[in-house]
Write a structure and sequence with these properties.
The protein is mainly α. It is built from 18 helices and six strands. The strands form three sheets. The protein has a two-stranded antiparallel ribbon. It has a two-stranded parallel ribbon with strand order 3-4. Helix 4 packs across helix 5 and helix 6 packs antiparallel against helix 7. The radius of gyration is 31 Å and the shape is elongated.
Length: 461
Amino acid sequence: MSEKKKKPWSGRFRGATDTLVEEFTASVHFDKRLYRYDIEGSLAHVRMLARQKIIAKKDEKLIVSGLKEILKDIEKGYLVFRPEDEDIHMAIEKALIERIGEAGGKLHTGRSRNDQVSLDVRLYLRDELRQIGEMVAHVKTALAGLAGAEEKTILPGYTHMQKAQPVLLPHYLLAYWEMLDRDEQRLGECHERVNVMPLGSAALAGTSLPIDREYTARLLGFPRVSRNSMDAVSDRDFIAEFVFAASLLMMHLSRFCEDLIIWSTDEFRFVEFSDAFTTGSSIMPQKKNPDVAELIRGKTGRVYGNLVALLTMMKSLPMTYNRDLQEDKEPLFDTVDTLKGCLRIFREMLGNLKFNRDRMWESASTGFSTATDVVEYLVRKGVPFREAHAVVGRLVLHCIDKDKDMDDLTLEEFRKFHRRFGKDVYTCLGVEHAVNSKRSPGGTARELVLKRLKDIAEGKI
């Protein structure tokens, strides 16, 4: 085997690796984005090795200096990665040995690529979780701000895509705030499980060398180390958990976008997207398409696919490390990129929505949306709920047959359906009264919604 083709692990081999195998097994073309974390982990590792007198101080200095030079060269684009480098770990080690000689071969002492890659991914995801958590918090702030600006706006609420009851638009917006708040909590909980230091587990069994894992963990800012070396090198639960949390978050964005897309149609006309967040048709000049919202909705399926890919990859793996695990990174990287891109543009899109308040009010006032309030009116008069429900159902049917709304009915007509109806029935027919009467905790009454906005602003969440 020529020196050019020689691999760091080639001692047991007589022949060279086939070029097709190098290309097929290489991951450096996508895992190179881990370079900063790989070098960060290596710097901590080599300092620990020197502190434990496993390697000499002079070798530590050479390795640290070499790694810092490599970091600068990668960031300047001077270092070119090739398929034969296999992965980012081997590429950096190879570059280090080429620069500082024999001392570079001591860097990998007491570790394996198995625990090294787990460390790199945890360092990477730890950073990304912090950034994504901040982005979710910014979207929550934007939602609360929009809710405050629309504090008097009323729209029809829907179940089964049929008009149900009138609600405040800020109540609707704060429903998504609550969803995103849960998302933020989930990301924080995921961060806790990511924030575990696996380095020192080596290939699967640990090492006989006198390493100090706690010291390495302190250098890297990990509050604890993994407790089982076999679990540490084979565990990708933390990646699957993140992608699951991302899937839920994307689902929430998608649901909001679905409503906005429907609301922007001519049939609804509840909202208008800014020109800056829409596109036109190549053939129909009148079109204004909600492409940003549609793409967020579409990209949700992409993240779901990443979750399924990860779970499928993991479901039958024998202990411990298997090369299948190389397939964890592309779904992870794609999920991070997709999620961040969607959160960024979603926030901007929110700030450029124009709600048609008059149209929402008009729609909320039709379709017998206050029928439940008439039922509760009768309940307050002592009528059993089921009886009241049946009475109002017949009343609605009568209005449909006569092409009337309930507020068009005379008191005599009301009393034909039940003697308990009085003049005060007309009060409960108005949408504003209907909204503000919903004072049960968590309801849509304006006083409750304003209180919730105040609590959010004061951090009482």
